[in-house]
Amino acid sequence: MREDLLHFIWKHNKLPTHQLCTTDNEPVLVKSVGIQNRHAGPDFFNASVTISGQLWAGNVEMHLKSSDWYVHHHENDSNYDNVILHVVWEDDVVVFRKDGSKIPTLEMRNFIPSELLLKYKALMENSRSVFINCEKDFGDMDSFLLESWLHRLYMERLEHKSELIFDLLNKTKNNWEAVLFILLAKSFGSTVNGQFFLDRAIELDFTLVRKAGQDMHQLESLLMGHFGLLIDFDCTDVYYFQLEKEYHYLSNKFELPITKVKPEFFGLRPPNFPTIRISQLAHLYHNNVQLFSKCMEASSLKELYDLFEVEAGTYWNTHFTFGKISKKSIKKLSRKFIDLLLVNTLVPLKFCFAKHQGQELDEVLVVLLSEVGKEDNSIITNFDRLGHKTKNAFESQAKLELYNNYCSKNKCLQCVVGTHLLNRNT
Fold first, then answer.
1. Is residue 123 part of a domain?
2. pLDDT tens for residues 254-285?
3. Is residue 398 part of a domain?
4. What is the pLDDT of residue 425?
5. Are 15 and 117 a contacting pair, CB within 8 Å?
6. What is the pLDDT of residues 84-113, one digit of tens each?
7. Which domain holds residue 315?
8. Which of 4, 145, 299, 306 could bridge 413 with an S-S bond, Cβ 3.0-4.6 Å?
């Protein structure tokens, strides 16, 4: 038994309308279940309940055992002074408010319909299934209901991604250009080097990127050195020495924080090597003064694709690493990589910037991502196997949010799909 089932039953009025009573045999009539609270404090606000003919208005708290009231120290918390009913699965101890008055208790296990318990048990017993608990029923979900839920999930995902952005804004004293650079560095680092690139980008004063951006050689030297790519003492490559010499000059002049840690190459395909990505990042900033403004003003997918139409320097046409010649190829940002930048950096940043300005771009961003191809990973592949095929990046992002924050955590009763399944014919 989980507490979320108690919340579900109360919220959706699954208790019988008659014969309800407290553990002291006082008749109970629920007039209004109130508003569910997912934050600190009682579980439902502003409920309305009649107990022994007396109408009470206030809050409702829920626990598996009534003794959890004391485990959570609610008796010392003024937020719980206005609790009018304690709803529990098992009543194992009498509960009192701070003023010593007894709180009426409703022991729910005596009133839950058996059919609902069977459905709940069947759903939760699937937690060891190959993918998700409701995989047998997911494909039969009403399309309109699912689309509405995916929209809400994507907004939740943007809110979660906003946390890092607003934290970086605080660190950079509201420098949006600097935040964009930091986020791009993280994305250019991919999964393997993303955290390392993020940490190094935070340590780099963005004004130096601006200054160096006027000179391509200087900017590439600055970024190659700062991101740990110029600490190979065995390298005899001429271009390497040119970059190293310039970075040595810059690091002394501006007292740059030195790293002795190299980014990872192992496990990466050559086009994703940090040498290639840093050169591409340098060219992006050399080609675009006020990149942040251009990204925020771009309103179409084509504008954004054109903006990120960049390639690594000519040296990298015949190299993937310093000193090792390879078959000639232009190291251009691929459309697939730009799509990842859109999904993980540009759209969340647009969302936050609009929020900062008191504007709403929710629908605009959904439309924008609906034009981007879906992501290709095992989670999306598994969802597509169940039905309701994923059509674009908006839907794939929403389904990643669904899986990571609901399915994998067994939060079925906080999910529209799960609550729909339990509500059917009960």
1. no
2. 999 888 899 999 999 999 999 999 999 999 99
3. yes
4. 56
5. no
6. 999 999 999 999 988 888 999 999 988 887
7. 178-333
8. 4
